[in-house]
Amino acid sequence: SMFRIPIFAWSVLATSLIALTATQLIGLSFQLVMFERLFGMPFFDATQGGNPILFQHLFWFYSHPAVYVFILPGLGIISELLPVFVRKPLFGYKWVAMSSMGIALTGFLVWGHHMFTAGIEEYLRVPFMYSTLLVAVPTGVKFFSWVATLWQGRIRFPVPMLFVLGGIVVFLLGGLTGPPNGTVSTDLHLHDTYFVVGHFHDTMFGGYIFPLFAAIYYWYPKITGRKLNETLGKLHFYLMTPSFMVMTFGQMYIGMLGMRRRIADYDPAQGFDTTHLIITIAGFMIALSVLFLFINLIRSAKHGEVAEGNIWESRSPEWSLLPSPAPAHNYDQEIEVVGEPYDYGLAGSRYVAPIIQPAGDD
Predict the structure, then answer these.
(1) pLDDT digit string (tens) for 98-134?
(2) How many CA atoms lie within 13 A of 246 on its CB side?
(3) With b meaning 16 or more CB within 10 Å and e meaning fewer, what string describes 156-173?
(4) For residue 340, with 0-12 CB atoms within 10 Å meaning exposed, 13-18 middle and 19 or more buried, which class applies?
(5) Quick one: which H or E segment has residue 244?
């Protein structure tokens, strides 16, 4: 049954559907630009009857779903790792699986919110506003699942779990700062300001970067056979997270004061200098924190503690059946699903088991 595969597999499936479909549009866009420049076909040249807004429609029809190509696997990692460290089943598995497909679908219906100030027809603004706000529904399903999974759990706090929790909090900030950009009346003022920059950083870091770091700390022992250093990992997390908060809150603050994107200079009398300095320092602190990760990766490859057995007590097949590091060909015999993927806390339950071949059977 599809509803017994890991939730991360559902996220990858939804991401693959986006990559298979939306990517064609950006290829078509570039092809039209190429034909316009090489052969003089005026698709986007208004002086020759073309429509420059058409390029924006084609570009954003791909480029907004492209955001979910990053975010959906990240949200899948959060849902995959959370039950491991909470020691409880993932709440609402089927709803979470379908929410990934829902996000992939609604992601194709919202591209116009990037164009509220671009000169699109006014009658398109309100439908795109409502479709944009609709994305909150499948995304909210994931948040309710995470909160319910955490509720009354026996939570452990190794480094992967810290980044999972950090990702939830930061992505929530990205979600809360999204509606002002997706609502016509407020976006007319916030569009192309640093508020959008702060919102986008929250969304991408919470939905992709934090989960990526969680995945690195979680699966590195399975890849190398050695654990990453917990102290360096915590230095990475506790330096990066507050620095990131300072950076994005600063960006949104000066954005609301009128700081524009994509400009080389601005009037010091506008009062942006101090906040920009703080943002810059915070950005360098984030870079410094990531340096701890690289040091950790290199150092632990030779000197890290040997990862023996199922160090996270995970039910997933790579941890429950394979040694660390995983063999080149993974499983030396076929496996079968014999239970639910996230039945943590249920004594005697198993998710997968190797298929025992009869004697003499090739």
Answers:
(1) 999 999 999 999 999 999 999 899 899 999 999 999 9
(2) 19
(3) eebbbbbbbbbbbebbeb
(4) middle
(5) helix 230-257
